[in-house]
Design a protein that fits this description.
YigZ family protein, Alpha-Beta Plaits, Impact_N_sf, Ribosomal_Su5_D2-typ_SF, alpha+beta, about 200 residues, Impact, 2 domains
Length: about 200
């Protein structure tokens, strides 16, 4: 099996999309998130913005190898809202996203099948309206070395397009570097072969 070291996500919140069915309006939003703590404030702010709406259903997914997700039907019949929304996150193969669908009830009950279709469609429209980008899964390392090694280290960093995340120059030099997961072993061996450079 090939080791994949990329994933799809979005960088900025989507525009609002609207799906209508028999008088009910379903407003779809997609947000980039880095952790679960960001979910509640986003949902709360949508509740303030749409205080006359009836339901604020959502699904989110975080992570690539160690995936976490949650679905919320917010008072709709079980699995009629959160799960169809999550299904769209899976079908678009995106992660680190939160999809919220706000429902204004139009007076006619849609039944479970109608709800599943409406939440699924609104989520699909919102995701299709989002700018999906591919990012690499990166691993971070710490390089420790003396000043005389600086040129060697900088040359390797340049040759291999390694990103320096953080650097400290005191008695010793300390770089935090970021490398693509699939390049990890090859780049580690480059540094490990050098005298006076310690990698953690």
């Amino acid at each position: 099996m090939e080791l994949t070291d990329t994933y799809n996500t979005i960088l900025e919140p989507s525009e609002e999309v609207i799906f209508k069915d028999r008088g009910s309006k379903f407003l779809g939003y997609v947000y980039p998130i880095k952790n679960e703590d960001e979910v509640k404030p986003i949902v709360e702010s949508l509740k303030k913005q749409h205080h006359k709406a009836r339901h604020w259903c959502y699904a989110w997914q975080l992570g690539v190898e160690d995936v976490q997700y949650r679905v919320n039907d917010d008072g709709e019949p079980n699995n009629s809202a959160g799960q169809p929304i999550y299904g769209q996150i899976l079908s678009k193969e995106v992660t680190n996203v939160l999809v919220v669908i706000v429902r204004y009830f139009g007076g006619t009950k849609l039944g479970v099948g109608g709800l599943v279709n409406a939440y699924k469609t609104a989520a699909q429209m919102a995701l299709e309206d989002s700018k999906i980008v591919t990012k690499t899964i990166d691993t971070h390392f710490k390089l420790l070395f003396e000043y005389p090694q600086m040129n060697t280290v900088m040359r390797i960093i340049k040759e291999h397009n390694i990103t320096i995340v953080k650097q400290k120059m005191e008695l010793k030099c300390e770089f935090i570097i970021s490398v693509r997961k699939s390049e990890e072993e090859r780049l580690l061996s480059v540094f490990e072969g050098l005298k006076g450079i310690c990698i953690e």
